[in-house]
Design a protein that fits this description.
Order of helices and strands: HHHHHHH
Length: 260
């Protein structure tokens, strides 16, 4: 009974842990989706606002057109600088400091954009004429700061690219020289191996010729057919018997004639 209770407790703990993990994962996924949607919504709203400001610069005249032009220039400078810094921060970590400064600069730009938006709804043209130069001067300072960082980042990227290209060109030239060196060494090695092979082949041919001259295939020292058949000794004995003088009847008359 105790074992059964322990098993039930473990199963319940496992189920609770799985449930907690599922809830945490769901909350994190929901927050990520919400942040992504909010970011896309902000970008879409900014694109619409920029298009609206650009249209106002062409369709309106006087202070409203001037205010729209100031706001549009401010947004364009900050957006361009942010794109350059965010695009290069992965390759150059020092651009992260410039990106942090741009974030602080963007806060001042947002405050200034709010003041310009309020000035657009101002019915008093005298106040607009009095406040607009000051706000334009602040916008120019922010725009100049953003453009300075953007231009510096671009120059830094180009310089690094030129330096990397120079180093790469030097490495390619060094590798080309090494390849030419090893090509010459390979050719010399190939020639040496070819001459060594030809010398070995001539020496081998000479040795094999000497072997053929001393071997049994040239006829010198080759066993005869009688030796191979085992008839050499009987034939030799027969030849010796045939070469002996015969002691037959022809010997008597010759002896008698010599006596008489």
């Amino acid at each position: 009974m105790d074992v059964f209770g322990v098993m039930i407790g473990l199963v319940m703990l496992f189920g609770i842990a799985v449930l907690v993990l599922a809830v945490v994962g769901t909350v994190k996924a929901a927050k990520a989706v919400a942040a992504k949607v909010e970011r896309h919504e902000a970008n879409a709203r900014r694109v619409v606002e920029n298009a609206t400001l650009k249209a106002r610069t062409y369709t309106k005249v006087g202070p409203p057109a001037q205010i729209a032009a100031v706001r549009l220039g401010l947004r364009t400078a900050l957006d361009g600088t942010r794109q350059v810094l965010e695009g290069g921060v992965e390759q150059d970590g020092q651009l992260g400091e410039a990106l942090a400064l741009l974030t602080r600069l963007d806060a001042h730009a947002a405050e200034l954009d709010g003041e310009l938006r309020m000035l657009e709804r101002e019915p008093d043209t005298g106040r607009i004429a009095a406040k607009l130069p000051e706000l334009r001067e602040r916008a120019e300072r922010i725009t100049h700061s953003a453009e300075t960082m953007r231009w510096a980042a671009q120059d830094r990227m180009h310089r690094f690219a030129d330096d990397e290209l120079s180093r790469l060109s030097q490495e390619c030239e060094s590798e080309a020289g090494a390849l030419r060196h090893w090509d010459g060494a390979s050719a010399a090695s190939s020639a040496a191996s070819a001459s060594s092979s030809s010398s070995d082949s001539r020496a081998g041919a000479a040795g094999s010729g000497a072997t053929r001259r001393a071997g049994i295939t040239d006829g010198k020292g080759r066993p005869s057919a009688e030796d191979l058949l085992g008839l050499a000794d009987p034939l030799a004995k027969l030849a010796q018997r045939l070469r002996k003088p015969s002691a037959g009847p022809s010997a008597g008359p010759s002896t008698g004639s010599s006596t008489s």
